[in-house]
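Data availability excerpt. The first of two example chains:
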Amino acid sequence: MSNENIPVLEMQNVEKHFGGVHAIDNFSLKLEKGQIHGLIGPNGAGKTTIFNNITGIYAPDSGKILLNGQDITGSKPYKVAQLGIGRTFQNIRLFSNLSVLDNVVIASNLDASYNLPQAFFKTRKYKEREKFLAEKAIDLLDVVGLADKVNEKASSLPYGHQRKLEIARAMALDPKLLLLDEPAAGMNEEESLDLVNFVHQIRERFDITILMIEHHMDVVTGLCDFCTVLNFGKTIATGTPAEVKSNPEVIKAYLGGAD
């Protein structure tokens, strides 16, 4: 099988239990290169637990998770990041007292090629690598429209800009797969529309594959090629946004009834 036919992400019959609760129940997914795929469903449906299993925060109780055909099931979070998965969180997790630039540089340091003594003595290799990482961070901030704010504290940014900074940070290790956890949370209609355009630009510019959790159906419709709908850890529907929105089970479980 050629690499072109291997899904970027494949989850095979993944299960995760917390006591007697099936947070993920026999979940499977194939995500092809360049797709934007949405995970939707009510609170408690298991969406963030899926992200946590992919990124190594939790290890599945059963099943497999493959990244470009490589088994990453139960891998440590730092290893998953190094292999090519970037992530944002529902609740923004920035170093609020550090500068915009430093937030991205710190994320890049997982890829730093110098060792501790070289950093301590600030050797030539250390200085060259730090210069490279800073330039790369500035390039990413330029892409997300924050190049003029590199010296501002992260906490001083408007909410929408903080979301963009978090995405820039997730992109710092050149991921093949980007996981976005409710990127439009807390945004108004105008900010949500801006986010849709921004994520499309990210996908096109970096030729990246995206898996996202989102409750805003206008964002899902504007962004996602396909969706998987969850309820109580189980998949109840898959298809395009239009298909899942008209699915009777989805309407009953998530969209609030026939109205």
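And the second chain:
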Amino acid sequence: MYTNIKSTKLTIAVTYIFCILLFFMMIFAAPFISLHIGIGLRFYATLMAFYISCPAAWIALICILKLLKNILKDNIFSKSSVKLLRLLSWCCVFVSFISFVTMFFSRAFFIFFLGAGLMTLILRVLKNVMARAIEIKEENELTI
């Protein structure tokens, strides 16, 4: 039977799978990229963009794990969740910027630029909704 707790635990498992995939992709990025686009300026630009974006990806995965663990602890509407959402959005801004710069070497990065930009927008809206919900919750707690 489907429950929110099972869904959250499944999402945590999938997030750990993405951590493993990112780890192996960091090891095998060069041969994988060269296999698909060959060696040249686009190869080096793509490889550099990938490795520059990796810290943001790791931070994002850690933030996602912390958010999911907050959900399991019923600590959803908290200032720490807002901070994690803010950090997630800044990771997306960083990747969007790197993709924008790399787009001049490989047009395919336009997709990553748009995707990361859209994720930034979604996360910022979600962060603002969460922050406002926390304000309302705190006001209600003060009301007798």
